[in-house]
Amino acid sequence: MLTVSGLSKSHGARTLFSDVTFRLSPGRRIALVGANGAGKTTILEIVLGLQEADTGDVSRPKDYRLGYLPQELMEAWTGSVLDEVVGGADEVRQLEVELRQLEQRMTDSGVDNEQVFERYGEVQARYEALGGYQLEAEAKRILGGLGFAAADMERPLKEMSGGWQMRAVLARLLLQRPDVLILDEPTNHLDVDSVAWLEQHLATWPGSILFVSHDRDFIDTVAERVVELAWGTASEYIGGFAEFVVAREERLASLEAAAGRQAKEIARVERFVERFRYKATKSRQVQSRIKTLEKLERIEVPKVQNLKLRFGFPEPPRSSRLVVEISDATIGYDGSPVLEGIDLVVERGQKLALVGPNGAGKSTLLKVIMGQLDPMTGTAKLGANVDLAYFAQHQVDALDLSRTVEQEFRHKVGAQPKNRNLRTVLGSFGFSGDAVDRLVGDLSGGERTRLALAEIMCNPVNLLILDEPTNHLDLPSCDVLEDALKVYPGTVLLVSHDRYLIRNTAEQLVTVRDGKVVHHDDFDESILTPGAASVTSAPGSSRRNDSGDRDVRSADRSGSESPGGRAKQKARKRSEAEQRNSKSRDTRDLRKKVGKLERQATEAEKAVGELERRLADPDVYDDKDLMGKLIDQHEVAKKRAGRLIAAWEAASTELEAADSRA
Questions:
Q1: CA 587/CA 593 separation, integer angstroms
Q2: At 109, phi and psi to the nearest 5?
Q3: pTM for the full model?
Q4: pLDDT: is 638 or 493 the higher one?
Q5: From CA 1, how far away is CA 321, in angstroms rounded?
Q6: CA–CA separation, 448 vs 456, rounded Å?
Q7: Which entry of 208, 224, 457, 467 is 20 to 30 Å from 258 by CA?
């Protein structure tokens, strides 16, 4: 178990947090949430030993393995994607080397083979448990789930974008299977499909997970506890994000009530002191109450009103009814089509979300809409009087780090945008009071993203295009963006992997997938998680659970026939014989149950091995549908095998206990 006790950390005169305490027991999955700059990444780095806390400590068992996914990478890559991912499985590689050495020693004469055989069995068992014999097949399965095509797995990793490099590092971590997985914004560089796959993978992760995320749906699926870092300390809540929100509101209400009761009591004591301060007969009582007030720890109620902000955007210039019109278009590069047969109409005031896997063509479609790329065939045009603004992830890189927030904002948008007070606009995006005087270089990644969004949105155009605007944003900042988009008076095209943001701001969906663009008039929730349904409803999922339970119950019933007599002494009392026979029946039922579960577990493991053998075939990854089907089947088969093995072990333990009582 990893235990964090009483951590505190300060930067200069500013205290980031104090008395942060939580435990990561085996299998526990904790989401760490809080505002940008609250110290979430600092806590992760303290847990990893990359930073020292001012007070408190982190304790973990010896040889506990930690795996870390940072927000930014500093590694230099030399091999292919697959080589870098497989090469990161250090423990498996070391075990493989030791196995070869032990095999050599077993053939040498004059060696204590009994000791070597014993060690070989231990190493081989650990090697199998870590998936050593299927290491490359497992690496390909994980890479496929994270969106890598078969051809990309053989490409040099250094040639790929930062987002794809981050995916490869995540794949390497998942392949390593550390005891504790520590992830800092793992969904930032993933598309909707990959996020859904990662959710399913982490939901059954056998080790502990500590992660930072702004994705509410991801937190809800993966986390079983939420630790909120706010107001200088940490509060732990049981459940996912939905339960956390309810519990936090209840806690704040309780604090308000307690603070109210305390204020009344303080007022009563102060009235007593003022009334009898100069009365000699009451001096001892007055002094006692004064000391009590001095020592009293005042209950402070956090000011949560700053987390939700409101906007008043001026009406943009009116555009024509048709803002974007694409007709029978084929788009691509160098004569190679990416998307074909596109018919898309965006009308004034609509808020559309573009969803689909990375590499499907969403960015290419946006380039055509913005006029940066001409269609190969067909037509694509903007309507009359359409004025657009575009926010991309690299927008943050254009900020001048040497300026203050106010100076940078004033430089980009002018002294008084649209006759509004500049500080009022900045306050709407979370920069109020002294925050406007901070250097841009001192802001966190999320705060810089929020500033870049403010520059784009403060003078609203009538077409706003946002490409992954929530990357590096914290939850309060995502709330700011959501509130802004809800009341934004123009037309919005949103590309995002954040399903919560899409669900709460987009009116319709446009899917970009398999070379096609489809405009969905109705908001279909299943479109946001295309891979989850197939995983949860595939053979061997929750329905397989029910089937497995029925198998066990039928095994209980199948051994109900009467056993043969086992009486050893006819002089024994009849009641003792009946009791002994009853124990014999119970034991026989358990033996049949153990035998059946053992056979089922063996068959399930064979099925997993067969699927891994098929996934090891490089040709599988040329067929996207087959690859996805096999990956889903393998995930289901692994879960079923795990359940059956756990049931067999439990039944075996129960049988041993019954034998000892008999």
A1: 10
A2: -85, 155
A3: 0.65
A4: 493
A5: 61
A6: 13
A7: 224
